Amino acid sequence: MKNYTRNVLLLTLAIFTNVVTLNAQTTTSEGKITAKVVDASNNQTIPFASAIVINRKTKAVVKGAQTDVDGNLIITGLPKGVFSFKVSYLGYQTMVRDSISISDALKEIKLGTINMKPSKGTALSEVTITAPKSTIQLGIDKKIFSVDQSLVSEGGSASDLLQNVPSIQTDIDGNVSLRGSSGVRVLIDGKPSLIAGGNVAQILQSIPASSIESVELITNPSAKYDAEGQSGIINIVLKKNKKLGLNGSVALTAGNRENYNTNTNLSFQNSKVNLFGNYSYRYGNRFGGGYNNITYLDGSAQGIPNGFADQITDSRSLDKGHNFKAGVDYYVTDKSVLSFSGGFNVRDNDRTELLTINRLYADRSPLQLSNRNNTNTGTGGSYDLNLDYGLKFAKPKEELTFNLSFSEGVNDNTQIYNTDIYNINGAPVNSFLNIQDNDNYGYNKNYNIQTDYTLPLGQFGKIEAGYRSQIRFSESNQIAKNSDVFTGDFITNLALSNLFNSKDQVHAIYFNFQNQIKNFGYQIGLRGEDATLDTRLGIYQKDGQLAYNPGKVAYTRLYPSIFLTEKLKGDQQVQLSYSRRVNRPRGWDTNPFLDVSDPLNYRQGNPNLQPEDVHAFELSYSKFWKAVTFTSSAYLRQTNDVIQRVRSDPNAEGITITTPQNLTKSINSGLELIARVDVVKAWNFTGNVNLYQSKIEGVPAFGVIENSGFSWNGNLTNNFVLPYSITLQVKADYRASEVMAQGTRNANFGLDAGAKYDFKDKKSSLSLNIRDVFNSRRWTMTTNTGTTDIDFSRRMQGTMANLTYSYRFGKTVFNNAKKKPTQQESRSDEESF
């Protein structure tokens, strides 16, 4: 099955590569349409407006395109004939030219300036887009993927949905990587989240996929963005009301293994106010398990016998979470809007792990046999408040925005480790329990203030400048207790109890200059950041008193960025970019106290971690045909002081400790290909392949030798439109093996499928999806520390099926007085020009 799936992916990649080539070869027509799209009320250009050319006779869409960042539109490769031309954008009337004729005598149609008018009744209403919604939008420094129609992730979480986005991978614990690198910054609506204390994996598990509108990938961010994130930024954009009048929807999901979700939203908008609110609830069970087998190659130095330690794990996890978000936008004037929004999250997590741990001599006779039961009961809650103000000046494209946000969250976890040792040195013993009880409390508080200003300079381009301050307070306390074997009383274990506080603050200013000279565009930026991480570790002394050890990581850096873009003939574009970035250690990475939940592999933080220094180069090429959107990127990323988790040699009890360390340097280079192909009217697919080479320099002090290797990953999402209002989606992904600092992560693959039926009322639908159809997403890796070989395998979730019913209500246009629509209004708010 493994080879079969891999061959299918390779075959499909070859197919869509050939389709791209065929489209390139068969586009021999020379017809061309040019235009500039602006707002009729203020003459401000409109970037990323959608335009389509329709055959007047067959009504088929011949070609589509988007305006660039300056509102310019060029559609080439049009055949001879008579066409209709439409350009549309959210909040504006769709502008139509009914009769455009291309012939040998007239090959180029210059439409000049297209003045788009606000939709009737208000400048904020929604237009009907005639063409299918584009799943990929390309900006100067980011890609936007519309994911609100993802069938295979419906009823799942944000973590499930991200697996369907090109360039993104998620691992067994829900941690996110971008282009194979885990050093990625994840934001929700442009801001960090405090759900679960900012733990990205738990944040993604708590957000329903149905509440997400789009995912923005910024692989090489400009100076305008936070410099945090080794491989870039993933911004998850949640749905927000964009329709006039009273609208709402509700979705109910039921899945196997007692998985249930509900999601509902309600909104109202008129010309002055937009009110919106949504609520979701997740009740999710996850089943997992695996093994962790250690071979001790040379234990004499640690005073332990050579032999083995075999560990088998069976786990259950139940997550329950309520999410609520509400807000109001008030349009003070036609050019200014004041917004206030707030979100609230409350969650519970119950996790149980059953571990069978067999320590064996070299001849596999018993050294010590035991069972262990780990239980974790967690509760938590967080809320965030946001105040935003946006002002557009009389001068086109001059704009000022301001944001002030505050968030606060608490987490409370109780962990009980119950170990039953029943055999020592091959002899049965009277079973006795070794019980450890950990009480963990976490508190987090975030402040964010930001302002951005854009000033157009006419033919000389535009300037962007801004300021941002982020301050985060974090408190993490653990009190550990062990039971007395004879009395059963719990006694505080001072060695495993600690208090850890941190204050992480980043103050930044940036400046960007952008200009377009004919087909050549450039953007030059510089960001300055002053960052400080203050930590305070409280260690219990033998007398029970606390002794505090302060720590500090502080630095001031400049982060330049440059983007050079050239538009070529035939809807082609090439871009060269460079940026400097940083990957900062988080508070939990610097907490040196032990996590002993795994009895054979402890984990701890490192208070001496330094930030990674990242230099990223990227060369991108994009091309648009009638049925193909194609983009490719060659990239090189050098990371100095690279942070990787390093496993120690075992101690006298056979226990290893994994600690994040600064290694010297890593270099990652690769080629990424993304294509959206409309094969026929009823079938399209989006494919992504990332081929990359990784090299990590050796650090003998940590037992890390130089390691390098080639790897690749890919995914393919097929969409089919079937008869009887049924749509089908099939998605496959594959990750080849990859080198790590001390070993290799092995290959894995998976297949997801979903189907949706739309009822005749067009307001309700029923969908069914199955994730990990073949139960094949198992994470395995091998690690070598010099004295140990470790084989690790784990799965978490397995095959999941969900059935979802959705119902939508409301209308897209709100009028105080009823009136009969005119012929012009009945054409979806279109207007001729």
Summarize the structure.
The protein is 4% helix and 62% strand.
Instruction: Give the end-to-end Cα distance, rounded to a whole number of Å.
Output: 57 Å
Given the C-alpha coordinates, what overall shape results?
globular
Q: Any idea what the CATH architecture of the largest domain is?
A: Beta Barrel
- Tally of distinct domains: 2
Write down the CATH class of the largest domain.
Answer: Mainly Beta
**Biggest sheet details:** 22 strands, antiparallel, barrel
Question: How many strand units?
Answer: 45
**CATH fold name of the largest domain:** Maltoporin, Chain A
Runs with pLDDT <50, length 5+? 4-28, 120-133, 812-828
Rg on CA atoms, Å: 29 Å
Helix percentage range: under 10%
Mean pLDDT: 81
CATH H-level homologous superfamily name of the largest domain: TonB-dependent receptor, beta-barrel domain
Report on the structure:
- The radius of gyration is 29 Å and the shape is globular.
- Helix content is 4%, strand content 62%.
- The relative contact order is 0.13.
- The protein starts with a helix and ends with a strand.
- It has 833 residues and is mainly β.
- The chain folds into two domains: 2-118, Immunoglobulins (Immunoglobulin-like); 143-148 and 241-428 and 454-528 and 550-810, Maltoporin, Chain A (Beta Barrel), CATH 2.40.170.
- The chain has a 22-stranded antiparallel beta barrel.
- The model is unreliable at 4-28, 120-133 and 812-828 (pLDDT under 50).
Helix and strand topology:
Layout: H1 2-26, E1 31-39, E2 50-55, E3 61-66, E4 72-78, E5 81-88, E6 94-102, E7 108-116, E8 136-138, E9 143-146, H2 158-162, E10 168-170, E11 176-178, E12 184-188, H3 200-206, E13 212-218, E14 232-238, E15 245-255, E16 259-269, E17 273-296, E18 307-333, E19 336-361, E20 366-392, E21 399-424, E22 427-456, E23 462-483, E24 490-492, E25 498-517, E26 520-540, E27 546-568, E28 572-583, E29 601-603, E30 612-624, E31 628-640, E32 643-647, E33 656-662, E34 665-680, E35 683-696, E36 707-722, E37 726-735, E38 738-740, E39 743-745, E40 748-758, E41 764-771, E42 779-784, E43 788-796, E44 800-810, E45 830-832
Parallel strand pairs: 1-7, 6-45, 12-14, 29-33
Antiparallel strand pairs: 1-4, 2-3, 2-5, 5-6, 8-9, 9-13, 10-11, 13-14, 15-16, 15-44, 16-17, 17-18, 17-43, 18-19, 19-20, 20-21, 21-22, 22-23, 23-24, 23-25, 25-26, 26-27, 27-28, 28-30, 30-31, 31-34, 32-33, 34-35, 35-36, 36-37, 37-40, 38-39, 39-42, 40-41, 41-44, 42-43
